[in-house]
Predict the structure.
Amino acid sequence: MNNDMNPSGKGYALVTGGTSGIGYELAKLMCKDGYNLILVARCAERLEEVCNEFRTQGVTAVPLAADLFRPEAAAEVYESIRARDLPVSILVNNAGQGERGPFCQVPLERHQDLIQLNVTAPVTLTRLIACDMVQRGEGRILNVASIVSKTPAPDFAIYAASKAFLLSFSQALSVELEGTGVTVTALLPGRTDTDFFFKAHMDDAKEYQDHSLADPAEVAADGYEALMNGESRVVSGAQTKMMMGMLNAKPDQANAESMHENMQPTEKPVGEWRTQSSHAPSVKERESIGVITGDLVR
Ligand SMILES: NC(=O)c1ccc[n+]([C@@H]2O[C@H](COP(=O)([O-])OP(=O)(O)OC[C@H]3O[C@@H](n4cnc5c(N)ncnc54)[C@H](OP(=O)(O)O)[C@@H]3O)[C@@H](O)[C@H]2O)c1
């Protein structure tokens, strides 16, 4: 182990998507607790900015610029960590995106990218890093799923299905790894005030405009607490817990219909729309992407 890189003695927390929203807030909590950080995102400049911010708190922060849409990227992240001999105590699979739109109108490539980012990258990182954790007899894994994992979502089908996968995978693995010293926790946030909706072309959707949004710092705090307690699953916030109760009480078909309704354009006048996240780090990340709405143009 490279002890020079590990002054806190707590090892590293690897957070994918640590430059914005929930991932940024999770990294902040881990930094406060003395964990060194390995942050993964696409924008190298924004990564450096966030790492510098965490370095001022006295931890080591390693930026790893990687595009997890690329099939090889997750394994390359792992190779880079191994090459630097960085021991990962906490793995947070947080980076994720959605895309609103009728299934047949969203480009196939975008669907494939989302499956790669939301499903294949977390499975790859978990497979590679969990094995090292099991060998060491300690480790914690947090997978950021969603309340949407509990309902089919027309016009958002791939996203909801990807989060259902992540939830099922996390819960199965948490039982499989019992007794190994490694815990797996799934975090289920509800609607949260981040850049997520802009990346997903949801800026005019009822889902974004007509509902209250959770503070990403509160969502991260719920996830972090559950992670440190080794809980297998946490639904963040009272409103999301209520939503979970309602989803569980109704058949999937009825839930799918109300999700479909929420994907439709809002009837609010444009002047009353939310136009950006009120979470400052998420606004900075959008600026670093450099487009007004949607994800990066290829
Ligand atoms: N916001 C919500 O309402 C909500 C609700 C439930 C669940 N979630 C889940 O919470 C997680 C975090 O989302 P958020 O709301 O915090 O979103 P966000 O503000 O858009 O943050 C996304 C983060 O992921 C990184 N990222 C995006 N695409 C990437 C790629 N291809 N490769 C590597 N990194 C990538 C981004 O950095 P770069 O752009 O520099 O790559 C950024 O750091 C996601 O899994 C999301 O599905 C969000």
Q: What stands out?
A: Confidence is low (pLDDT under 50) at residues 1-5. The radius of gyration is 18 Å. The first helix runs from residue 21 to 32.
